Amino acid sequence: MIATDEEALICDLMETYHIYDYRSLPLTKVATFSVGLRGNSRIKMKMNNMKYSLETILLASAIDRLSFLVWSKTEDGAKGINKPQSIVETMLGENKEKDIVAFDTPDAFETEWKRIVEREVRDE
């Protein structure tokens, strides 16, 4: 933990245990205190590469579900348009636009399919 981010560890030890100089304590004590830090402490979140706590993600997920339920009862929801953006996907960086293509006829699909395949063959 010290190698990962000593300042975050110091802040967490001060906030949780009121330890202002962890170096004055035996190493085993500091290790015990460090392991006992809560899951959303600065150092544990940094070590787990987490930007947000589990509680924050769960709250955002609840809002996403509620927004979806409300949207599904609207005229836009019945038509499948203007779906609300997911807060969780935005937080986690998964809210990438996907290119969705629709075709009116099977022939239009076949034409596009051939164009894509020919382009891939040329690129190889």
Describe the structure.
- Among the domains are: 2-47, no CATH class; 54-92, no CATH class.
- The radius of gyration is 25 Å and the shape is elongated.
- It has helices at 2-17, 27-35, 42-47, 54-72, 75-79, 87-92, 106-123.
- It is 64% helix and 0% strand.
- The longest helix has 19 residues, at 54-72.
- The protein has seven helices and no strands.
- The chain is mainly α and 124 residues long.
- The mean pLDDT is 90.
- Largest β sheet strand count, sense and barrel closure: none
Task: Name the beta content range.
Answer: under 5%
- Shape summary: elongated
Number of strands: 0
Average pLDDT number: 90
Order of helix and strand elements from N to C terminus: HHHHHHH
Termini separation: 47 Å
Oligomer: single chain
Count of DSSP H/I helices = 7
Helix content: 55-70%
The SS-based structural class is mainly alpha
Radius of gyration: 25 Å
Low-confidence stretches: none
